[in-house]
Amino acid sequence: MAVNYRHAFHAGNYADVLKHVLLVRLMRALQGKQKGFLFVDTHAGRGRYDLSRAAEGDTRPRKPEWPGGIGALWDRTNAPAGVQDYLAITRAYDRSQGNLSAGPRFYPGSSRIARLVARPQDRLELWEKHPAECAALRDEFSGERRVSVHEGDGYGAMRACLPPAERRALVLVDPPFEARSEWADVSAALEDGIGRLPGGTYVVWYPLTGRTPRDGFLGWLEASGIPSLTAELTMDPHAPGMTGCGVAVVNPPWLFDAQARPILDYLADALSRGQGAQGSVRWLVPK
Fold first, then answer.
1. Could you point out which of 78, 106, 181, 270 has its C-alpha 20 to 30 Å from the C-alpha of 17?
2. pLDDT tens per residue across span 212-235
3. Lowest mean pLDDT among 31-40, 64-73, 205-214, 230-239
4. According to the CATH classification, is domain 7-285 in 3.40.50.1580?
5. How many CA atoms lie less than 13 Å away from 41 in the CB half-sphere?
6. Boundaries of every domain in the chain
7. Cα–Cα distance measured from residue 82 to residue 212, given in angstroms and rounded to the nearest whole number
């Protein structure tokens, strides 16, 4: 299954919004304890995206997706606290990069959002296998302490980074889902990570399509017996191709499900493309 993934023009779309709002909430929850933790991003991209270039395709212009994501939320003031926290972070970053216009231009990727939220005692290990993207990622974090950038297959991050000295970790697995082996690779990496750090928090982003074989993966999580849940955002159940997206969270922090539910409900309403948009949070294995 492939979703023709080119993140430069996908940046800031509804999938990014869902992923990044929940990432901020997870990091805030882990920061409820003073001790630091390791953040691992297995598919980190370039860390920073210029939305003014989002329409540049490989061979011809393409319709950018950010207006239906961060663009639809940019001026909203009625969002739940979790969404407002994310918006404050993205707005401040956008302005720090020199954007003086009313709308968004510079959008932070997952790795940059994690760095903006991280405390001095928290640490980042960022992986990206595409040389050009990794070079941009290195430039983005050049000179920043407690951030390491690795050019290589992010699935190997589990073996290389876990267990960390902190004995606490938040691992984001956000693959492009272009390869047929992607779900098998995700499952194998997650199994390796959990074996190395059973108490770590693991987050897997995935697309929802008529061809998405996520059920096998979620069934595997259920059978594992490890506390886990899904948060899914269906944008248009009748759309061809990708109808929405979700994240699976293994070992979610206490009360994360209660915090996520109003966020999913709000995003389904604010970003709706048509009838049938909905958000859901479902425990696979309750705590």
1. 181
2. 678 889 999 999 999 999 999 999
3. 205-214
4. no
5. 28
6. 7-285
7. 28
| Strand 123-128 to 201-209 pairing | unpaired
Q: Which residues pair with 119 in a beta bridge?
A: none
Strand-pairing partners, residue 280, are: 232
Put residue 54 in one of left, alpha, beta given phi > 0 → left and psi -120 to 50 → alpha: alpha
Q: Is 122 one of the annotated active-site residues of the chain?
A: no
Sequence-ordered alpha helix ranges (H) in the chain:
7-10, 14-30, 70-73, 81-96, 110-117, 131-140, 157-161, 182-196, 214-224, 256-270
What's phi and psi for 230, nearest 5 deg? Answer: -120, 145
Q: CA end-to-end span of the chain, whole Å?
A: 32
Residues in CB range of 122: below 8 A, 6 or more apart: 31, 36, 37, 38, 39, 146
State how beta strands 242-250 and 228-234 pair: antiparallel
- Identified catalytic residue from 174, 185, 236, 265: 174
Which residues is 150 bridged to in the sheet?
Answer: 127
